[in-house]
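Input record (Table S2, row 339):
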Amino acid sequence: MFPSTIAGSLPKPSWLAEPNKLWPQWRLQGDDLAAAKLDATLLAIKLQEDAGIDIVGDGEQSRQHFVHGFLEFVDGIDFAHKVEMGIRGDRYKAMVPVVNGGLKLKGRVHQLEARHARAHTKRQLKITLPGPMTISDTVADAHYGDKIKMAMAFAGLLNQEARALEADGVDVIQFDEPAFNVFIDEVGGWGIDALHLAIDGLKCTTAVHICYGYGIKANIDWKNSLGAEWTQYEKIFPALAKSRIGQVSLECINSRVPLKLLSLLDGKDILVGVIDVANDTIETPEQVAGVIGDVMKFVPKERIVASTNCGMAPMRADIAQAKLVALGAGSKLAREKYA
Ligand code: ZN
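Output record (zinc ion complex):
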């Protein structure tokens, strides 16, 4: 009852990459960098295990950014001539690479860290991948001429990597789709179709993470413009409920998502965000258990998984570690109170 997990990323050690940045520079190169990424992966697993996290992840220690960590391994993308583009519905401008040819994987994307993590933990293992809609919103297209066609091409590559991750022994594969929350009308149209292509043939648990973004300024300003209740999810939850995705991950604590909307996700496991990644205050176990208790009014308790609101990559390492401990302790307390 109430197993715990993380949305995905954890801060990187300062010997691996610049701390407190969403786009950190690596501290090492070549073979040294490759070895250091695996060492950091092991450390991330150990910290989660010690905090009592049940479904552990690699902490995304091997990727510079959650989308570009995948794109680096894709042929048909020009990283040398990036262009400025408004992304997430023009919420912010970013320099993005350009798709200039047919997309193809260069090889395995997350094999090294997935196998290393698998070899060193007996707990369930989760690996995250960016979702096809979010990838398509983070690159410029000079080849396909059609956003949906390009997204489906990315979904095919994601499926190739996801099947290989499953064969590596990964238990949960999660797709991060913050763009679902921006292109609301397109989710039911083609967003779910693209996800279905990405999970095609998988037997392991599948998840999608949706959210209102990390705790960076552009996101905080946007959230402040959304009013007292965030009801965007109301339009996409029915489509997600009908999908073949097993789990839905989203923010709850300190968010203005009305919890009653969770009842629209009937039949799905819910990864309930009980840890805020946008502030440095460490949650208490009582607070964590309290959110789980609130969610139980709308979601059957056997479908609740305790998680973080979003990735923790840009946080201070000591704060993220304390929050992991609160997550583990809070889920345990919820088991004692409600199981
Ligand atoms: Zn998120």
